[in-house]
Amino acid sequence: TFTLGPPAYQISGSYSFVKATSQFEEREELKLSLKTKITDNWSFQASTHRDIDAGEYLRHSGSLTYEDECIAFDIIGTRSFFEDEDIDPSDSILFKLRFKHLGEVKTTAG
Fold it and tell me: What does the alpha-carbon distance between residue 84 and residue 29 come to, in Å, rounded to a whole number?
């Protein structure tokens, strides 16, 4: 795992070795993220998750966040490339509202 750069522009990444299970073969994964602070209250993040051995992407995501001293609001878009017998690649959008002193409310579309 690594993180480079100031809070205004950060690049981070991680490497994972996933052991084989009864359903999946072992694999090596790499996740890379870029986060930028647009203003004091707005930020943007984009990330990708890749299976190194298969040479395939597992997931892409991007988020736009508004945050102040009371609330935070996220819009998160995700594209999953996972496929199985009953599962197709999918897209989703998550809207998340966090009340910093009370908790959070989430809803998903997609």
Answer: 18
What DSSP designation does 22 have? S
3-class DSSP string for 32-89: EEEEEECCCCEEEEEEEEEECCCCEEEEEEEEEEEECCCEEEEEEEEEECCCCCCCCC
The model's pTM:
0.77
Find the angle CA(39)-CA(75)-CA(42) to the nearest 5 degrees: 5
Amino acid of residue 109: A
**For the purposes of burial, counting CB atoms within 10 Å of the CB of 79, is it exposed (0-12), middle (13-18) or buried (19 or more)?**
middle
pLDDT digits (tens, 9 = 90+) for 15-50: 999 888 887 778 899 999 999 999 999 999 999 999
Q: Which two structure tokens, joined as six digits, stand for 40?
A: 């004091």
